From TrEMBL:
Record keywords, A-Z: Glycoprotein, Signal
Phylogenetic classification of the source organism: Eukaryota, Metazoa, Ecdysozoa, Arthropoda, Hexapoda
Name of the protein this chain belongs to: Leprecan-like alpha-helical domain-containing protein
Family annotation (Gene3D superfamilies): Tetratricopeptide repeat domain
Gene Ontology biological process: collagen fibril organization
One Pfam family it belongs to: TPR_leprecan
Family statement: Belongs to the leprecan family.
InterPro entries: Collagen_mod_leprecan (IPR052284), Leprecan_dom (IPR056585), TPR-like_helical_dom_sf (IPR011990)
Length: 292
């Protein structure tokens, strides 16, 4: 009898979580249909984050071939709410169920933004300074580490059961603009168009939609006002990217052992970084490591 095996990676951490749940079952023991279904979902859950695991791939194929397993009911136990809300919204779009599109995509959008905020909050945790505990550079290192960590959150969340979608967040607005238009809600359609264009200002399809909506009788000058959460997201994104570019340009971190004695002079100083991005604060004060 074919046998499902536990992967050698079962005890390893994945993403920002640790495998605390057991996702492996001994199929030599009799299982009810519902337990086999759970076993298939457990294997799939593991594969979402370890797509190249050959042992778990074989396990999933084994479970899928067993009587009583409905492959369409296999789920990811660790999926965030926005994943299946988005999938349901996309399915509703294919069925031309515009109310279903709006309901699911709006809920998915809110869930996604909350998930990213949660991810960003985790970046604010303790920071191991390691071998370089000096106070001033430690603050600089921690600040930079947190900022880079927050910038990675979107990449970690842009996955639908293992399939990467770099445009996952803005694609919500793409679905919504058309669904709202089909429901006769031109105001919300225009807001969704403007929100999408914040992410992709040169998108030909959306620019054509904007032109079409703008020529409709009910259109007005305020039609294409982006939604507040989209404006906030883009402003924050550009703000943080600008800080990171400033750090990369102005501060070089070299191996101290390679420096000449004459170069190790006044290495630490207080730096004020002046940044102006929309309505965000124009100045932040932080301590950086200065290399002369």
């Amino acid at each position: 009898m074919a046998e499902a095996r536990a992967s050698g990676q079962a005890q390893q951490s994945y993403g920002q979580l640790t495998m605390e749940k057991t996702y492996f079952m001994d199929v030599d023991e009799p299982m009810e249909n519902k337990e086999i279904q759970k076993a298939a979902s457990a294997a799939f859950t593991y594969l979402v984050l370890h797509p190249d695991d050959k042992i778990m791939s074989a396990n999933l194929k084994h479970y899928a071939a067993l009587e009583g397993v409905d492959i369409t009911e296999v789920v990811n136990f660790e999926a965030k709410d926005y994943v299946y809300l988005y999938i349901h919204g996309a399915d509703a779009y294919e069925k031309k169920d515009w109310n279903g599109v709006v309901q699911n995509m709006e809920e998915s959008l809110a869930s996604y933004l909350q998930a990213e905020d949660d991810c960003r909050a985790l970046c604010e945790g303790p920071f191991d300074q390691g071998w370089y505990p000096d106070f001033i550079p430690s603050i600089a290192n921690h600040f930079t580490y947190c900022l880079k960590c927050k910038q990675r959150c979107a990449s970690q969340l842009n996955s639908l059961n293992g399939e990467k979608h770099e445009d996952l967040l803005p694609s919500h607005y793409h679905y919504l603009q058309y669904a709202y238009f089909k429901l006769g809600n031109l105001k919300d359609a225009g807001a969704a168009v403007a929100s999408y264009l914040l992410f992709y200002p040169d998108d030909d399809t959306m620019l054509e939609n904007k032109d079409y909506y703008g020529r409709l009788p009910k259109a007005n000058v305020d039609l294409f006002t982006p939604r507040p959460e989209a404006v906030h997201y883009i402003q924050r994104l550009m703000y943080e990217r600008r800080i990171l570019k400033y750090i990369a340009r102005e501060f070089k971190f070299e191996d101290p052992s390679k420096e000449k004695p004459s170069e190790v002079v006044n290495r630490y100083s207080l730096i004020l970084i002046n940044l102006n991005v929309g309505k965000l604060p124009s100045r932040i004060c932080t301590v950086m490591q200065w290399q002369h």
